[in-house]
């Protein structure tokens, strides 16, 4: 009977040993899997950082172009306001000329400044004006 129980214990010891080896191998494979996953995630993080830096650069470039366009747009809006006011003023002038009638009879002192419509009176000068 002792030989039979020794054999049973030997089989149980063999099963324990095989199970222990199997568990160790399983744990080793699990650690290797986790290490590979960590390395894959680290590689992906690096590539995503590179892509992110590229996108940030594009955003900076587009933002700069936007600021330039916004400044040009402001200039154009101011110019539009100025030209609209000038057009309104010129339309008022045309309206007033139409009300007067024949505009060819009106003197234009800006076009012919030497033909001023007021009378020219000589200005008398005395000899004492330029003395101190």
From TrEMBL:
It holds the Pfam family bZIP_1. Residues 1-15 have a biased composition (Basic and acidic residues). The lineage of its organism: Eukaryota, Viridiplantae, Streptophyta, Embryophyta, Tracheophyta. Residues 1-45 are annotated as: Disordered. This is BZIP transcription factor 53-like. GO terms for molecular function: DNA-binding transcription factor activity; protein heterodimerization activity; transcription cis-regulatory region binding. Its main location: nucleus. GO terms for biological process: positive regulation of DNA-templated transcription. GO terms for cellular component: nucleus. The keyword DNA-binding applies. Residues 13-65 form the BZIP domain. InterPro entries: bZIP (IPR004827), bZIP_plant_GBF1 (IPR045314), bZIP_sf (IPR046347). The keyword Transferase does not apply. It is found in: Nucleus. It comes from Coffea arabica. Gene3D superfamilies: 1.20.5.170. Keywords: DNA-binding, Nucleus, Transcription, Transcription regulation.
């Amino acid at each position: 009977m002792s030989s039979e129980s020794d054999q049973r214990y030997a089989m149980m010891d063999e099963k324990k040993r095989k199970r222990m080896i199997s568990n160790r191998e399983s744990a080793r494979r699990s650690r290797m899997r986790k290490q590979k996953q960590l390395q894959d995630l680290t590689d992906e993080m690096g590539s995503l950082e590179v892509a992110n830096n590229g996108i940030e650069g594009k955003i900076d470039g587009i933002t700069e172009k936007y600021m330039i366009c916004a400044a040009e747009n402001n200039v154009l809006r101011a110019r539009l306001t100025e030209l609209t006011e000038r057009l309104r003023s010129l339309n008022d002038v045309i309206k007033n000329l139409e009300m007067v009638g024949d505009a060819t009879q009106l003197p234009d002192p800006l076009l012919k400044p030497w033909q001023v419509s007021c009378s020219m009176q000589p200005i008398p000068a005395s000899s004492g004006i330029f003395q101190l």
